[in-house]
Design a protein that fits this description.
- This protein has 301 residues and is mainly beta.
- The strands form two sheets. Strands 3-4-5-6-7-8-9-10-11-12-13-14 form a twelve-stranded antiparallel β-barrel.
- A hairpin with a 3-residue loop joins strand 4 and strand 5.
- The longest helix has 16 residues.
- The relative contact order is 0.18.
Length: 301
């Protein structure tokens, strides 16, 4: 299953790279401001990830959220919903980008077990809730404006996550209901090909990104995990692409799969964008084939 996911992502990447120079790229070049104070291009700051930071849906990018430039501030709020066969995931949050250098984000996630809660012995509609606070800092590079060199935009970030179900997490073998993650992200927009590529390495021991706690009876160490994203700018307002995210397997009672999605993000303007995706989250708490629709609305400036 994981091999199929990887092949899907690689195939989409190859298709995007095969596009070469297009009229879309020419339009983007024409719209590129001479001064960075003119504002970012649509979608180049990414959308809101499930953890509140700027990026894709399940993968964090190095870009700073919002459309503020070196002399400005950008901000957004988001609401995300993922409908799975046996679960329901919801996320709301806000992020602020300061001078295209620092990003501050907060998010609250809810993982609703619905009817599955009864089968798991938790009760009908039992819900795990997790709060996330994050900071991201751009170290060097510019994903959009550095078209004359191959150096990507590189950022580092920290996210602290706190889950409200410590007793349940302990009962299923989790070690803690709080955890801190550190990541390094690199992103690059190739305007001539209308392709954006991003990769992130995250040091984490989170179970299902923290929704089932941190560490476990199988493993309690932080490990490096990968988040990759590729997108093709179809036009100024629309990007389509795919993401892949690896995750540690810490709990003995349940196997944890990597995540993959295929998405489309549409920016109505610099204030409103909508993202839709087909997401495959694999096995979650012994319930397999958790695939469903991902929808996210972002409003900001």
């Amino acid at each position: 299953m994981r091999l199929k996911h990887l092949l899907l992502t690689l195939a989409l990447s190859a298709a995007a790279l095969a596009g070469l120079t297009t009229p879309v790229a020419a339009q983007i070049f024409d719209s590129l401001p001479d001064s960075r104070s003119g504002g970012k291009l649509l979608l180049t700051g990414g959308v809101s990830s499930i953890e509140g930071s700027g990026g894709g849906g399940i993968a964090t990018w190095s870009t700073i959220t919002g459309y503020g430039e070196e002399d400005g501030i950008g901000a957004n709020v988001h609401a995300t919903f993922v409908d799975l066969p046996d679960y329901e995931f919801r996320s709301v949050g806000a992020a602020v980008g300061l001078w295209d250098r620092v990003e501050l984000s907060v998010a609250r996630q809810e993982f609703d077990t619905g009817d599955t809660g009864t089968a798991l012995g938790l009760g009908q509609g039992f819900t795990f809730t997790q709060d996330i606070v994050g900071v991201k800092v751009r170290l060097f590079g510019d994903a959009v404006y550095d078209q004359d060199r191959w150096v990507p935009q590189v950022s580092v970030g920290v996210q602290h996550k706190s889950n409200d179900q410590g007793a349940i997490i302990s009962a299923i073998g989790g070690r803690d209901d709080e955890g801190t993650e550190v990541y390094v992200a690199a992103s690059k927009l190739f305007l001539a090909q209308s392709v954006l590529v991003s990769g992130t390495v995250r040091w984490t021991n989170a179970n299902q990104t923290g929704l089932l706690g941190f560490g476990g009876d199988v493993n309690d160490d932080h490990e490096a995990q990968f988040e990759g994203s590729v997108g093709w700018l179809v036009n100024r307002n629309l990007v389509i692409g795919a993401e892949y995210r690896t995750k540690p397997d810490n709990l003995g009672f349940a196997k944890e799969d990597d995540w993959v999605d295929v998405y489309a993000a549409y920016a109505i303007n610099k204030h409103v964008s909508v993202t839709a995706a087909w997401a495959d989250l694999g096995s979650i708490a012994t319930f397999e084939d958790q695939r469903g629709l991902y929808l996210s609305l972002q409003v900001g400036f």
